[in-house]
Input
Amino acid sequence: MDRTNPWLDWAVELQAMAQAGLHFGTDPYGRERYERIRAIAAEMISLQADIPLEKARDLFCCETGYQTPKLDTRAAIFQDGKILLVRENTGRWSLPGGWVDVNVSVKENAVKEVREEAGLEVTADTVIAVQDRDKHNRPIYAWKVCKIFVLCSLIGGHFTPNIETTESGYFALEDLPPLAEEKNTREQVEMCFAAYRDKNWKTLMD
Output
């Protein structure tokens, strides 16, 4: 739990419990209580994360089923000892990646995201790390995220601007541009460099 702001953790936990109760519960009175618990959790998130209540409700009150973390892949691609980053519409830079689509595997998603954001064809070779996003990135999200960093090898292709990214480039560790730290921090990029340099790298897991 993030002791600097436990309210967010409590709200997320209450939401997960309410969603599970709505999924498994059949008693109408019980379901009504779970609906109220979920609404309270959304209100807590709205106040603590300073986001509009309607957005918090959209995040919390639309999903069904047992709640599990979302998956996010980030691809680490190297050339001449430098790492590939893509520039997002915000002007900040990130490792190519994104949410894992429901119809692809983690490996397939890593390859797909590189193709879409960087215009490159790669192979996904090694899982660098499986991380709990809350332990490494800010701000805290209203839902849990499992981040999977994948070391990839370049096959070919070239960058073309698209709806998600405006530029790409290879950067040395000592010359990183401003990062989209909600997606990848300097420490996470350093981890990718360490994996690239270590031929006997063992996957890190939170």
